[in-house]
Specification:
The protein is mainly alpha-helical. About 75% of the residues lie in helices and about 0% in strands. The termini are far apart. About 25% of the residues are buried.
């Protein structure tokens, strides 16, 4: 199993990083990491797009899910049936985020191994970003930037609502708490590791923010078109 992991995940990522460092980054390791992150995101774009879209839809249909839970609080079977019907209606997979996490995990482990130990395998490598940030050591600026990007991305997934927090469901409260817990977790964790890993997460999160903005605009346009269609049908 370890040989498969090394041959098909760790070594290819390391070789791509070295290639980018030597040919496309002006021998700036930070730029090479940014390029590698973009390549990973492009390769996995369909999965990330589906996961981000499902997450945004789940937030939008949260009030309807709450209505189903209240309406069928004494009939769990009916509650499950209507919940699944709602998922099918909106073509959403509630488990897509877990699948995405499972797919990401081996890549994250490989990148952690590269950024923490793999640099030693690269000859004549200067582990700096923009000429002065040592990527082998933690960097508070990169970590705070990564946390801020994650905060923005998480906020973009939340639906706009005028409801007070006391009227929110448990799931909605958890989602809103995670907006703050996620960035705090990023700061606490990434301050313990080389800033190369933080730079990867920063680039990753910025890409996610851009993607989420595009998805939200698409969903809003689709929603407006549906409303217009219903109005025309009634008239």
């Amino acid at each position: 199993m370890s040989s498969l992991y090394n041959n098909y995940i760790y070594q290819p990522l390391l070789h791509v990083l070295v290639f980018l460092y030597q040919h496309f980054s002006f021998h700036d390791l930070g730029i090479a990491i940014v390029l590698l992150t973009i390549i990973v995101r492009i390769i996995l774009f369909p999965l990330f797009h589906k996961g981000a879209k499902d997450q945004a839809i789940m937030q939008k249909i949260a009030p309807k899910l709450k209505e189903i839970q209240i309406r069928h609080k004494d009939n769990k079977e009916k509650q499950v049936q209507e919940t699944m019907a709602l998922y099918r209606e909106h073509k959403v997979n509630p488990f897509s985020q877990f699948l995405l996490l499972i797919i990401q995990l081996p890549i994250l482990i490989a990148l952690f191994k590269i950024f923490s130990k793999g640099f030693q395998e690269i000859q004549n490598l200067h582990p700096y970003f923009l000429g002065f940030i040592d990527l082998t050591k933690p960097n508070i600026i990169i970590v705070l930037a990564a946390a801020a990007a994650q905060f923005i991305q998480a906020k973009l997934t939340l639906p706009k609502t005028d409801k007070q927090s006391k009227n929110l469901s448990t799931a909605e409260r958890v989602s809103r708490q995670m907006v703050f817990i996620g960035p705090i977790f990023v700061v606490v964790v990434f301050l313990q590791f080389p800033s190369a890993l933080g730079l990867y997460w920063l680039t990753f999160s910025v890409f996610s923010v851009i993607q989420q903005i595009i998805i939200n605009k698409q969903l809003n346009i689709e929603q407006e078109l549906k409303k217009e269609g219903k109005k025309m049908g009634i008239e």
